[in-house]
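S.,

Sequence below, as promised.
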Amino acid sequence: MADLFERVTLRQLQIFLAAVEHRSFWRAASQLDLSPPAVSMQMAKLSEALGSPLFEKDGRSIQLTAAATALIPYAERMTEALHEAQSALSALQGRLNGLVRVAMVTTSRNFGPHLLQEFRRRHPDVVIETTIANREGVIRRLEANQIDIALMGRPPQRIEVEARPFAKHPYVLIGHPASALAKRKMISRRELSHQTFFVREEGSGTRMVHENYFLGEKLPLPNASMMDSNENIKQAVMADMGIAFISAHTVALELEAGKLAILAADGMPTMREWYVLHLKGKKLSPAALSFKEFVQDEGPGLMRTLFKRFEKWA
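The prediction came back faster than expected:
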């Protein structure tokens, strides 16, 4: 059986069916763009592999043997199955070409869905799969090639990516609006090193801003409690339990509502960039490439519209 699978090819079955249809090696060769000797040779190999002659010469035409007649439905079934597989794969490829897998860091959830929705409005035929995760989670998905495009701050260092900035990303220091610090015109770094802070996990962009702010001036890191989300940090600051560095794009609503205040601190705000990125060398589908170009071209204007309060930092 194994020998039969090695010796009989789908091409031979295709030639066989053409010869059956035309009752002529010459006309089968013309249909398949082959030479008549090539058709004759392949049919001889197929007959040898099956252990039975398939055709008998009858002048300029050929006649089918009993073995050939028996083979016809099986050959048709196999070639039909191949055509069905091709159709299924073509349909799948069409779906994949219209699919964009996007991951965004949690800090971007205040604008990322707006970008996605605007892209969907302009490209209704594109399907977008969205993941929101912390920075490490997004990087892991990039490494595993589980996503096409990522929206995040500072690009990862441990993997090679192609990254393009598309908007300014200001980090601010927030506190309770009624706190003593909120009434100050300027607060020094040294004074802040004695305050109570809330921070995100190691490796996050927010945590790096916090640490660089003090260590860059050779000041000790203040006492800090780690929180697993920006939402929890905001709630703690709104309860006047401490202060925090945070992306300005995550606190726009709370600032408008007067529940949080931006503190006037030395060296703040700290400006970063938002990036749209993907694995270096990755061949993007047409849909993914369109999304990347959309973020680069339309992202800045949409960000200005969403965050008019921070336009002076754009």
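Residues 97-167+274-313 form a domain with the D-Maltodextrin-Binding Protein; domain 2 fold (CATH 3.40.190.10).

Coffee later?
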